[in-house]
Design brief:
Elements: E1 5-10, E2 31-33, E3 36-37, H1 39-48, E4 53-57, H2 63-80, E5 83-87, H3 99-104, H4 108-113, E6 117-122, E7 125-127, H5 131-140, E8 145-153, E9 161-165, E10 171-176, H6 182-185, E11 190-200, H7 202-215, H8 220-230, E12 235-239, E13 257-259, H9 263-272
Parallel strand pairs: 1-4, 1-6, 4-5, 8-12
Antiparallel strand pairs: 2-3, 6-11, 7-13, 8-11, 9-10, 9-11
Amino acid sequence: MNSRILAFVLAGGEGRRLHPLTLGTPKPAVELRRGLPIVDFVLSNLVNSGVPWIYLLMHYKPGPLLEHISRVWLPALARRGCTLRPLCPEGPEGAYRGTADAVYRHLDLVAQHDPYAVAVFAADHVYRMDLRPMALFHHRHAADITVAAVPVPLEEAERFGVIDADHDGRIGKFQEKPAQPASIAGDPARALASMGNYLFDPTALCELLEELAGHGGTDFGHDALPLAVQSGMRVFAYDFSHHHVPGLKPYEEANYWRDIGTPGALAEARHDLDGPTPRFDLRNPRWPLQPARSRIQRHLY
């Protein structure tokens, strides 16, 4: 199943809230450790999950990201038979107008590869995730769209897309960064938040983005997912809090996930890597940061 997944990684973010770190580099290229940019987490997750086709969509100051990909990733993945291709916007349209617009402008790749499913993943999160259980969930529910989701405290929910799902996981309501999360979450303490990682049935993705373009919508969270739910598509939430990857240490935080959107979040994530028993241990030979034997790995620990 994973051998026929096509992945788009959304790596074009300017990251204004991370200024001045992102004045000369895109947010996914910001380093947690020397030689370890944030983008390495999503790439290692996809590669370790056996995804064969990965397209990195960039547009804001892509130079540092391109240099890192060319130096560290491309030589190693060529030996694995995995395609990783950085893409920048071309043609008269100019820069991508949003996350959905970025994928819409590369729908020809969906027709070219004829995948079983299309993964659209964010490039600015720190976590480990095996895509295979999510793909199995997507298949078993005959979903048009599956959204990876994680419970968050209600007071933090306004920073995310908030989900209301039934006991089977089918999403009945979705709103990006709502002013009143409790009105959607239905829980006075917690909300189910989108991680910005999606699996699509290829036909559903193409139909949704074509319709969205006709409405002038450009973003997955603000535009595409609400439209999909309202139009009756089978949209499901995959609960990351029950997820498991191999090789985790007993002292690590189970299902660790951090959205690196602010200097505070970046500082917290860096702190979580420190010490003899870190909340997130970079040293996991069963789910390694890739490429594991690169020279850059010498500087990680």
